[in-house]
Amino acid sequence: MRIGTNWFKSLALVVGVGVLLAGCGSGGQQTSGNGGASGGSGDKVYVVGTDAAYPPFQMLEADKISGHDIDVMNAIAEAGGFKIEWKNTGWDPLFDGLDKGTVDIGISSITITEKRKEKYDFSDSYFEANQLILVAEDSPVTKLADLKGKKIGVQAATTGEEVVKKAFGDTYEGLKGYDDMPSSVDDFFNGRVEAVVGDNGVLSYYVNKVKDKKFKLIKDDSFEKEFYGIIVKKGNTDAMNKINDGLKKIKENGKLQEIYTQYFGNK
Amino acid sequence: MDWSVIYDYRELFIRGIINTILLTAVATVCGTFLGLFISLGKMSSKRILRWTCSIYVELFRGTPMLVQILLIHFAVIPSIWGILYPGASSPEAIYSGFVALSLNAAAYMAEIFRAGIQSIDPGQMEAARSLGMNKGLAMRQIILPQAFTRMLPAIGNEFIALLKDSSLLAVIATPELNYAAMNVAKSTFERYPPYLTEAAVYLVLTLFLSRVVVRGLEKKYSTR
Description:
Helix content of chain A is 46%, strand content 25%. Chain A is built from 9 helices and 13 strands. In chain A, α2 packs across α8 and α2 (68-80) packs antiparallel against α9. Chain A starts with a helix and ends with a helix. Chain B has a single domain (4-220), classed as MetI-like fold, CATH 1.10.3720.
């Protein structure tokens, strides 16, 4: 019996150490692989991560990722002369993927913020956004402050959530952070939240799809203008230079504007 | 790793814990009662009742709970509300949570009850009937008390599963514990502190359920 227990203990130890070593080994390999590729040939295929649940910026059509940001990134890669491979990671795993090196580039309507700049490097901006408030047509609300005490839907961890937290506190009870924008808009039309705060592009796109419902979009001038940027892991200047180079080219040759018009019309 | 985010967001966590407990408690009670009737329905001599209850159990056992939650929250409840109270707001996410968890628990509880009841020797029912009890009285006074003792471990399992499954409600922004942790993780970029805290709280809650509540009940209803 005693021998049996010891046997089991040593077995557990061996397995445990083995797993740990294997983990370290693969981790190390990955990093060195990345280093080699970025240092040498221009043939590296950059893995671009996105959260394809934010139409019209990035969405899934059938099983293909499409949308404004997708077109922009493809155009940048073409102009900048590098190869990319798309990966629909989802929002949170996108950032984790960048941290761990499984994703090289992230484009997903990511607003350039100081907080995010601490952890990631941003490209120049490719889109100018501002926050809008979605409320019922007959709502007396005219600015964010009027929403005090009301239930507000946002997509969790977006700038929309940030402005609400800034106004009403980090743990504001009425704040409902949904996994995605469609869910929060759904629950707005179901009457579960009285307002939705989110980026102009996405909100206008959605609410225009449900034309029979009564609503209005309010612009609060206290909201700062926001700029979407493409992110890479901090210090990945090689990829960043290529992105900024490509972005500059498509800004100059009018391609970026062309894509904008295609999705949002002339404005 | 910055553990101070837990303190900064303590309100969110406390609210989450309270709601998680509330959700589990309500779903346990409703699920148990509903489950009992469904199990009796499944054993009924009326074919329609038997089939309806069987279909119910298969539907809720055979589809992912996450799908049930989404369906109930975004489709079923708004539709029902739209018909009953046109123009009114649908109830908040936590009510969808009560409904989804209770209905799901009922399906599993029904099977636990059926197994428990059928494990009692048919002679018990026959003896009770021959003493002049009607079927309902015999079920309540003779069969169920005996079956309940045998079912307790399985019921305890179901409580714990329910408590853990309530974490799925985060997708519909129900302010429960997992929602709190996910929210903190997303907005602070801290991963270990919120998720480890959450895991620890779930562990404490399930341990309390299994060691104190279920074991206490087992002791109380022990026939030995």
